[in-house]
Request: fold
Amino acid sequence: MTQVFETIEANQLTSIFPETVLTASGPQTIIAEFGTQNTFTISQANANALGLSSTTVRGDVFRFDVQFGQSYAASIAILGAGGGTLPDVGFVVAGDNNSAKNGTILNSASFTNIQVSNASTTSYTEFEFSAAGHDYVYAFVYASASDTGTYSVSFANSLADLGDDVVPGTSGDDVLQGYRGDDMISGGDGQDTAAYVNTDDKYIVEIGGEIKVLDKTTNEGVDTLLDMETIQFDGRTFDLSKFDSGATLSKAQFTSFTEMYIAYFNRAPDAAGLLFWADAFATGTSIETIAALFAGSPEAQALFSSNAGSSTFVEAIYLNVLGRASDPAGKAFWVGVLDQGTVSQGTFVLEILKGARAPAELGSDPGFIAQKAADVAFLNAKVDIGLYYGAHLGMSDVNDARSVMQLVDGTQQGFDAAEAQALNFAINGDAYKFDGTGELVLRVTGVADDPVDPFIL
Reply:
């Protein structure tokens, strides 16, 4: 595992005073930034050789802590490879030919190049090298003065050791970054932030036994977050404290929230909303209060206007929850108590949901028993689709959530069609795109079955 340390920008232009010494036994990844250093001029020939667009550049110097004759590996990464925000970089990795040039003037030093960038160098370069013949090996990193941002340099004993980082916090408030690889980012005490270089539509946040951040482009790998309070994307702050408590809840508890979406809105839950209500319940909000808040929500008010009447409301809930019209006696009772104000809409919805799952009494009419079984099967199918869309696939488009749920009709064919449509939205819709038209995907693990891996990119 790589240990990541932040770096201080170097202002040295001619002397080799490395801002950071990288040790392979760690190994280490350095996250550096161009933006405030002094600029200097290189020849056009050197700019062309390095693959830089300008002769006015900024530079950083690093020293690799090597042992004579040993082999090592290093990598340099920028924006296109999840290594930072810098759009372009040039570099030279060179050894000093056993002349111990540390602290001497570059112009008088004699170096042998080990790895040099050029115009065809990609946004990620990794290589192995031998320290034979060198006391010191340096990485000289350059960027055109007009290019600002961060980049990363990694050093390890072998290529296999590069990429996966352990990023520790302190006892204070930290902003931590992992960049490439599958990183373990641990904040510790304080209010800690995991920072990412791209906009939120490039990522999946997975909440469950662990909190993970997955990069849709696959450049940055899968990070595991421990003791982190906030995720900072480019242009958006995501407050984990408003969502992570719900990860402790059971599938049965998530089912209760999903049933609210079905009863009131006849749609699958959007991922952000599902996690919000789960967190509210986990931190002390009762299911009765949640039902009342659903009833008073703008979406419910738009669906059930105040002049629609209790009869319309009761009939809609029966259709949404049970897939059938209400029975005359039941409807008359509920309309009466709703009109009298002795029962709230929230209480009515909870009672309908409770009644739908209540077993038929011993000796009940066979037709009634069959209807009860059909009611439970219909509601279970809707819950399964709702959890698949909002929890497992982690999608939040309300219109898609509604169209998926409308396919559930009490038949196996309807269920299969709804499941296929949900997966189609994940594969071909906007949610999982990372071209600027997608969305932050919020998945909850352990509460929905997965017949097909949704992480299809």
Observations:
- DSSP finds eleven helices and 21 strands in the chain.
